[in-house]
Amino acid sequence: MEVIEVRDDVAVPEPGPGEVRVAVAAASLNWGDIARCRGGVASVVTQPPFTLGMDVSGVVDAAGEGAEEWLGRRVVAVCTQSLGGIAERALASQVSVFDAPEELDDAQAAAFTLPFHTGYLALHERARLQPGETLLVVGGASAVGTAVIQLGVAAGASVIAIAGGREKGLVCEGLGAERSFDSTSDDVFDRVMAHTDGNGADVACDMFGGDRTETIWTCMAHAGRYVPVGFNDDPQSGLAGKPLRKVSMGNFSVVGVIMAYGRAPLELRRFGVNPFPPETGRAVHTALRALVTSGAIRPAIGRRISMSEAAAALEDHEQRRTTGRTVVDMTLA
């Protein structure tokens, strides 16, 4: 059943206190959009109808009380409740709004925020990646994976990637990965151990989870750090859990990460939601802008599409027919 349609009768949203409204120039597609379309587990649960789209670029054309400083500025933003971005106007909390890097065009800017903020938080805030360590990126050709590879290289790590097929592996190597392994045919354990002289990965960033998680765990170095970034191969979106005995046996750590900034009220803390403080978001964005300016990182855009092509593009994502970020460009018919 078709569940996505483009409509022109949706009311223009108005920002509340601490919110801004963005005149959207471009928006990215996310795996979270697929989960919502399928009625699966998403970061924010809501009932249809709703507008898809988690992260956007554009110019702030309206602001609620307390967010007036953003009026007229070109920004990147994660939308309120991670919804509403694939539209002409979208709302975002000011804690999730950042100045767009001047070096990036609108599509690149829309492809920038979630992958690179998530990657930076995973590698530096949570895993504490050090120069010279080995970083294993699982799902290296995905949007977040392509960001993590570049951030790992910029941090001075030895980066290896796992991707589905040789073509995607070449994408990873083109971004700086020393080697890529094919998840569809290679024995990942044998390949990782051979490449690391039996030491394993000091840090593993896993975008997919699912049944292969425990294989990645066997690839960890002693005192390594495994970061579950996404759960695209897990129909329960990670909520089924994994046996912890293998973590104990492997003498490595599992450190969680989610790209979210703010102060969670107690009713959300009860459900396990505990985001980073807003000041962390500002510091991360400052560090990332410096890396953009230096030329160390750039969003990897696989496709630029029109709004009417979003449904077909999400199907391509689900069937693993994409690399990097797919961006909805509002200037395309």
Overview features:
globular; 333 residues; 7-stranded mixed beta sheet; 6-stranded parallel beta sheet; alpha/beta; 11 helices
What does this molecule look like?
By secondary structure, this protein is of the alpha/beta class. Helices cover 29% and strands 22% of the residues. The chain has eleven helices and 13 strands. It has helices at residues 31-37, 106-110, 113-126, 143-154, 166-174, 188-195, 213-218, 245-250, 266-269, 278-294, 310-318, and strands at 19-28, 55-63, 74-78, 89-93, 97-99, 134-138, 158-163, 179-182, 201-206, 220-228, 253-254, 301-305, 325-329. Strands 1, 2, 3, 4, 5, 12 and 13 form a seven-stranded mixed beta sheet that branches. Strand 9, helix 7 and strand 10 form a beta-alpha-beta unit. It is globular, with a radius of gyration of 19 Å. The model has no long low-confidence stretch (mean pLDDT 93).
Number of strands: 13
Q: What radius of gyration results from the CA coordinates?
A: 19 Å
- Please work out how many helical segments DSSP would assign: 11
Shape: globular
Order of helices and strands: EHEEEEHHEHEHEHEHEHEHHEHE
Helicity level:
25-40%
Structural class based on helices, strands and sheet pairing: alpha/beta
Distance between the termini: 25 Å
Please outline what is shown here.
The protein has 333 residues and is of the alpha/beta class. It has 11 helices and 13 strands.
